[in-house]
Amino acid sequence: MTFYRLFFDHVLTRTDAETAHRAGFAALRAAEPLLRRVDPTATGWVPGTWRRKATREGAGPVVRALGRDFPGPLGLAAGFDKNAVGIDALAALGFAFVEVGTVTGEPQPGNPRPRLFRLPADRAVVNRMGFNNDGAEVVARRLARRRARLGAGGSTPRRRGAARPVIVGVNIGKTKVVPEGHAVSDYEKSTRLLAPYADYLVVNVSSPNTPGLRDLQAVDKLRPLLEAVRRKADAVTEHRVPLLVKIAPDLSDTDVLAVADLANGLGLDGIVATNTTTSRDGLRSGEGAVAEVGAGGLSGAPLRERSLEVLRLLRGRVGADMVLVSVGGILTAADAQERLDAGATLVQAYTGFVYEGAFWPARIQRELTGHGRTVSR
Description:
three-stranded mixed sheet, 16% strand, globular
């Protein structure tokens, strides 16, 4: 058992989860200059490359997806860096891509605290954050400043102390106070502001913590929303920004396949599967602990089986070419490899990072390297 695991189990679990997150993330951002200077080859992780065996073989990036070279298969899911304040610090830990957000058209405080909880017995997290974020205008300015600092490509040259290559996705959602009838215009505002700074864009219609949001997953509502976001993104960018949609694990198999058909029909670039679940089935935590936590989306180990099922359903329906980003219950390299073998193009994590600590991303990337699996979509 690692020191971090002991520290987490005996210290962090006694601290409010959101307070611990804020403090830990602030410390990580403060340490970014030091993290950049650590020799990554000492741990076997070479930023910008995820090669078979060793970099001297000269193989190109293993994951070519969405028209971009991902420096590895593992990224950080939306929800951790909601406001795009720590992208390069997170990249320095070994994440190949960071999905910021969820960002809404208007700034909002989210739901009342406490709203983030741990279930250690299940290696799970429950959140009812409610899309707390600074809003699309502020996040767009932040991303613009970062791009200006790093250059048009989003990264400085690879020199000692430089920011490491990282793909930046932007996840957008609905502002809570915006009526459902105006949801499309709300997403369009976020798209107008954020698409110019996104390597890819994700339409989030699957969080359980914004009233009515999941209703937008119905195909008759999802189609015009995705079409509007696509048009707006094309209107405000010189180069086509890949567009994906993020879905919930609580959809029926029939609805999952309906979304897959819609994605194919619209020429969508990919699907992120899955978001958190409202289910509490099969938890090891006692009923009292689960009841005390209350409502919200559950992430972590309990989501593993359903997320894998949804991935297999999607891959079987969309064919071999569409990008599928698998997220939910990935805590080990074996979990990640299982998703890749099942047809995932890329994998994302959140709860595994929370439970395993700062060295976890680089370790997972390093362990996956041994499989030497090339992906190109």
